[in-house]
Each structure stands twice: as structure tokens, then as C-alpha cells.
């Protein structure tokens, strides 16, 4: 079975990129971040305008939603590094380059809108948030995967995971303004996922064994781009315990829908290397299914104990 070089993959997939770009332009809806922020709720902070310093009692959001919003925002803040990574991998020429810049422009709205909402509603400490942004962006982001196929596989899952996280954070906020904003952002992420998912589907038709290996490598090592955030493990556990994003959701709402869409378990033209990669993928899914079920059982038992003691 033929192995495609990186240059060949970029050239062969470019017509698909062009087609997906045309489709994206037709379905993407223009929106404006300022329309989703309740500006009338804003008041001056301490500093040059001599307002009121932020206090813990200012926030109306549940703690788990606030933590998730901070993680999501700091993740979105690293856009310059993400742009560098995808521009380096996909290039800036022709349809690939047009998509890279379009994607970056659309993603750029997300941090602006979330930060404006959090600041205006006094939902978070703006000083602590800015310091966290400086630290996180100072570390940057480096793509953990080499090559076009692995990068496409990663963003196919990551964009969907981000969509799920935003949507569930909005619901957990118990604030209709926050939920409306995050639903709008999630809609962007969904279109980005469709772009990458469809592109990798074309890669499966072109180089099935190579693509299967890339998908397996990504699924078995997947991490969200915000893992470099200070205190991420503790924050992620709070988010998981709240049911905003956990391993159960990762399997049921991210991994399996995308894998089924590609039809990875029905493919018959993978060759020995592709079959080996698929077997590794299947074994991994069995293992994490067990872990996900155990986590949910422990969480439900803990909630039951808390309810009984209330």
C-alpha cells in the first residue's frame, strides 16, 4: 500500500480543502461579540477610574462554571500559538492558507467575547485572570503531533471537544446570557470540526492505512490544548465532577461520533499496518470505557451521599 509524503498529502487534499472552504463560507453566519455582552451591568473597577475592586461576592456563577469559563478562555487566548502551528503544518498557500487565516479570524472572536462577558458581569477576578493569561501565553502551545494526518485527526476531535465544553459550561452557568454566548461560540467550533472531519474523511479514501495510524496515535494520546494552564489537573477534576466535560462525554460525544462518521470499524482496505492500528484503537477504547464507567459510578455515589447528608 502506497505511502504518501507530506507534500503529496497537501497537494492531493487541496481540492478538498477548497471545496470545504466554499461550503464553510455558505453556512457560517456572521456574528458580533459585542452583541452578546450585557454592557449595562458593567461598573468601574479600582484603578485609574477609581471604581470598586473585585470581591468574591461579586460573582453570581456557580464555582464549577466559573472555573470552566476561565479554562476555556485561557485556552482560547493561546490562538497565536495555534495559528503558528497550523500555518506551519498546512502552509499559507492557496486554499490551505485561506482556511488557516479564516479559521484564525473566527476563533479570535471567542476570547474577546468571553473576556468581555466575564469582566462586565464581574464573574471573575480580572487581576488574577490577566496574570493567568500572561503565564499561560508565555508558555505557548506546541503541536504534539507531526504531519498533516495526525494534525487533522487531532483538530477533528479537539474542535468537537471544545464545542461540548462550551455548551455544557453555558448550561452550568445558570445564566441565560452566558449560555447564549457560549452556544454561539460552540456553533463556530462545530463548523470547524465539520471542516476537519470531512477533510480527514477524504484522507481515509486517499491513504487509509496512514490515516488510521494517525487517528489511533491521536486518540490514544489525546489531551486538550489547555493542559498547560496552571493548576489544570485540579480544574479539570472540578469540571469533570460537575459533568461539564469528563471521560464519559469524551467517549460518547466526541470520540465515537467522529469515528463512526469515518466508518473506521467497517473499513476493509486498511492493509496489515492499518489493521494493526485499528486493533490498537479498539483495545484502547475498551480500556477507557471501563475507566469512564467507574468514574461515573463513583461520582453518582458521591452525589447520593451528599444529597443524603444535606
From TrEMBL:
CDD domains named in the record: Acyl_ACP_Desat
Highest taxon listed in the record's lineage: Bacteria
Protein's UniProt keywords contain Membrane: no
Pfam families: FA_desaturase_2
The entry's keywords: Fatty acid biosynthesis, Fatty acid metabolism, Iron, Lipid biosynthesis, Lipid metabolism, Metal-binding, Oxidoreductase
EC assignment: 1.14.19.2
GO molecular function: stearoyl-[ACP] desaturase activity
Cofactor(s) listed in the protein's UniProt record: Fe(2+)
InterPro entries on file: Fatty_acid_desaturase-2, Ferritin-like_SF, RNR-like
Assembly, per entry: Homodimer.
UniProt record similarity statement: Belongs to the fatty acid desaturase type 2 family.
Protein name stated in the entry: Acyl-[acyl-carrier-protein] desaturase
Lineage: Bacteria, Bacillati, Actinomycetota, Actinomycetes, Streptosporangiales
Amino acid at each position: 500500500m502506497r505511502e504518501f509524503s507530506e507534500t503529496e498529502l497537501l497537494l492531493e487534499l487541496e481540492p478538498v480543502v477548497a471545496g470545504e472552504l466554499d461550503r464553510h463560507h455558505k453556512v457560517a453566519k456572521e456574528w458580533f461579540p459585542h452583541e452578546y455582552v450585557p454592557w449595562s451591568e458593567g461598573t468601574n473597577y479600582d484603578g485609574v477610574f477609581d471604581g470598586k475592586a473585585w470581591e468574591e461576592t461579586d460573582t453570581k456563577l456557580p464555582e464549577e462554571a466559573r472555573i470552566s469559563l476561565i479554562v476555556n478562555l485561557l485556552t482560547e487566548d493561546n490562538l497565536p500559538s495555534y495559528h503558528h502551528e497550523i500555518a506551519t503544518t498546512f502552509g499559507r498557500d492557496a486554499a490551505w492558507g485561506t482556511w488557516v487565516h479564516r479559521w484564525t479570524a473566527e476563533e479570535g472572536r471567542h476570547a474577546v467575547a468571553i473576556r468581555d462577558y466575564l469582566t462586565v458581569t464581574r464573574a471573575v477576578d480580572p487581576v488574577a485572570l490577566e496574570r493567568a493569561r500572561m503565564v499561560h501565553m508565555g508558555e505557548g502551545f506546541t503541536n504534539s503531533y507531526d504531519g498533516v494526518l495526525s494534525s487533522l485527526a487531532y483538530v477533528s476531535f479537539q474542535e468537537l471537544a471544545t464545542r461540548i465544553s462550551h455548551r455544557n459550561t453555558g448550561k452550568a452557568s445558570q445564566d441565560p446570557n452566558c449560555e447564549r454566548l457560549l452556544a454561539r461560540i460552540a456553533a463556530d467550533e462545530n463548523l470547524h470540526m465539520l471542516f476537519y472531519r470531512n477533510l480527514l474523511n477524504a484522507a481515509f479514501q486517499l491513504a487509509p492505512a496512514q490515516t488510521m495510524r494517525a487517528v489511533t496515535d491521536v486518540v490514544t494520546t489525546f489531551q486538550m490544548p489547555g493542559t498547560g494552564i496552571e493548576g489544570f489537573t485540579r480544574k479539570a477534576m472540578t469540571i469533570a465532577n460537575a459533568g461539564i466535560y469528563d471521560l464519559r462525554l469524551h467517549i460518547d460525544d466526541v470520540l465515537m461520533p467522529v469515528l463512526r462518521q469515518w466508518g473506521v470499524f467497517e473499513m476493509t482496505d486498511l492493509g496489515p499496518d492499518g489493521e494493526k492500528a485499528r486493533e490498537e484503537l479498539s483495545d484502547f477504547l475498551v480500556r477507557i470505557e471501563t475507566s469512564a464507567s467507574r468514574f461515573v459510578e463513583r461520582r453518582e455515589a458521591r452525589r447520593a451521599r451528599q444529597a443524603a447528608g444535606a
